Amino acid sequence: MLFDISFTSSSGPPSTVCSLASLGEELGFRAVWLAHDLLWDNAWVICGGIAKATSKILVGPGIVNPYSSTSAEIAMGAVTLDTLSGGRCVLGIGPGAKLMLEDGGIAQPHVIQTLGRSIEYLKRALEPGSETLRIPVIRRIPIYAGCQSPKLLEFVGRWQVGALPLLTPPSYAPIAMEALRRGFRDAGAEVPKEDLIASLFVSLSHEQTASLKSFASFIMPTLRHLSEHQLREAGVSLKELPDLNKSFSERGWEGLPQKVFKLGVTDVESCIKSIEVAQSAGFGTVKCGSPLGPDKEEAIRILAEKVLPNVGD
After folding, report:
1. Could you tell me if 9 and 290 are in contact, meaning their C-beta atoms sit under 8 angstroms apart?
2. Which of 41, 82, 232, 250 has minimal Cβ neighbours within 10 Å of its Cβ?
3. What is the CATH number of the domain that holds 290?
4. Domain span at residue 287?
5. How many domains are contained in the chain?
6. How confident is the model over 195-214, as pLDDT tens digits?
7. Is residue 233 in a domain?
């Protein structure tokens, strides 16, 4: 089992994220991913900073989308980062969050067709020796598609690229994997197990109350961006969101039902169990991401020292 970490703009200023990425490298994580959320910090720029601050860990945006950036621009960014990092770029691409795109005045039509065309372009452009760009491609840059719904995940398998599904809640793992496998079967293809990456929302702290509070502060603004499939798996309906937001506004994290916290992991034991669920479903890599916890450095150390050594083979 391999392990990645990920950050968002809420993880801290770019200089802090670069330092956290260096810590992740020191503690043995495989890759570090940066969310490229529209109107927030630019992941490509921070990934460049991480590339210069590290020497071994893989680094890349997780995820970019073909609506706010053209496929050519995404390819340019990936090859430039790969050159800068000495061959360590990983590329996460997906449809993006519809409401975030709308906040930036960008529509999201024809998701499957648009994402599929972009992935096919990138598969050609990011192969060694490709002449699609005016800059040399030295190594095949791995592509990972980040999607949520079973329908889209099935297409990821058909596109024969790595997968980066958001498992929110973690119990969504078998559903996501079955959809991926249907797509792989249709394509007559196999993808290396390590390229099937389970993405989990993780909040860890030595103080359980702090962990729960941090997770609630992150997940509540995120709920509206999750797919109905994921919310249903956690027992949350779209109709509940106004009431949940009202409870959180009036009473804070203590006003939220337990099922909201089931959308991620908030303690060492549940983190180990969630990783093992993903492992059992067939994922070969797990990405632990924002919020990570109220103290990001503490959370990364807890992951490395208390969680990962106790995950079953």
Report:
1. no
2. 250
3. 3.20.20.30
4. 2-207+265-310
5. 1
6. 999 999 999 999 999 999 99
7. no
